[in-house]
């Protein structure tokens, strides 16, 4: 492992400084909190302040909901072509400003700048996709069993949508939800993570430039998660909640939303299995694992957490993986030599440390890494000799730790892979077509990567099963999460 890493690196200047907004956005205006309070947003690489944003409370949240409600009818009654055109303009502005958006993202999230650029393009793809889907919200004409009558099915927007997003993909987690909501004809109140509000505010600034009407998009910033979340989930004027985050918080939001029977979609925690079978291309499997496991320093809900390697290739796989990981460089996301940035905060580092210490105490071996650095940095780590009684087996690490388990038979590993209360993503490598179909069918997850470690794309439905939540984002299915079905029966014709 290259032990040197830099945190004090010059931050590129924004070409357009107006994209770094330090006020919230309600009803087309950049506003402060009614209380006047603010909180600081820190760069996870240096723990230095990037800026301050309003500390908004329930009163502010109610104002944002009111603005969204008052703008809903006008927005919902616009033509699909009109909404398409605005979304397309917004997409173009995002692409035109991708460098500045990536700088803002790296500042508040820490991921390397090239990785941040990749997220901006990925996030923009959902705006483009749902711009097109806005014009494809088709209904049905159903043959009636009664003469002189017709059965019609329409799709209509649900109303005001509350969107609650995490810090690990502060651009794409918003666009993936927001693109679908706006295309469907919903208005929105967005509560981004308190750690990464600037990406959301930059998107709102570009939405203004695209020409979105006042009140259609609202962004509230706050560290007061509980009370603001409670308002969004219990306010009767909010008809839909879309949340990405932990399973525990998702359960709470669902419980709260039951008071008004809101439509809800949840993309929650994962504990993804990754399986390397003995007939796999070992080098390709290692590369696929690295792409899945170490992207965003392991801070993704779909990254591999339990890595099962068949006995006959276990030693080769572990050695090759350790060699690759030893070449990583940890540091500031603005250092061109950096491959992996910091974790989001000290709590994240504490969790990684706890998982590794538990594994080692129970017999695991550290092949590479395992070192906690100053601040929020942790060396990418490879562990071997993992067993079922270790914390990592049952708890998502959300950090740069590749934990390798040995297995012998296909039936054994499928049982191990499915032995989890969550089921978001799963991956495996094999060159046997029959085995590929069998394992893909057997894995109890919402998404499967076969001979690939990257599965996310706007064309495909993203989401999980079991306690990883329900509902889908992206694809032709994503817009349905923000639509209601209306059945119309015409008689006397």
From TrEMBL:
Residue ranges occupied by any Aldehyde dehydrogenase domain in the UniProt entry? 30-488
The cross-references to Gene3D superfamilies, in alphabetical order and at most eight, read: Aldehyde Dehydrogenase, Chain A, domain 1, Aldehyde Dehydrogenase, Chain A, domain 2
Which domain of life does this protein belong to? Answer: Eukaryota
CDD domains to which the protein is assigned, alphabetical? ALDH_F5_SSADH_GabD
Recorded hits in Pfam families, A to Z, give: Aldedh (PF00171)
Q: Which residues form a coiled coil?
A: none
Q: In which pathway does it act?
A: Amino-acid degradation; 4-aminobutanoate degradation
What GO biological process terms does the UniProt entry carry, in alphabetical order?
A: gamma-aminobutyric acid catabolic process
Q: Which InterPro entries match?
A: Ald_DH/histidinol_DH (IPR016161), Ald_DH_C (IPR016163), Ald_DH_CS_CYS (IPR016160), Ald_DH_CS_GLU (IPR029510), Ald_DH_N (IPR016162), Aldehyde_DH_dom (IPR015590), Aldehyde_DH_Superfamily (IPR050740), Succ_semiAld_DH (IPR010102)
Could you tell me which SUPFAM superfamilies the record lists for this protein? Answer: ALDH-like
- In short, the EC number is 1.2.1.16
Q: What is this protein called?
A: Succinate-semialdehyde dehydrogenase
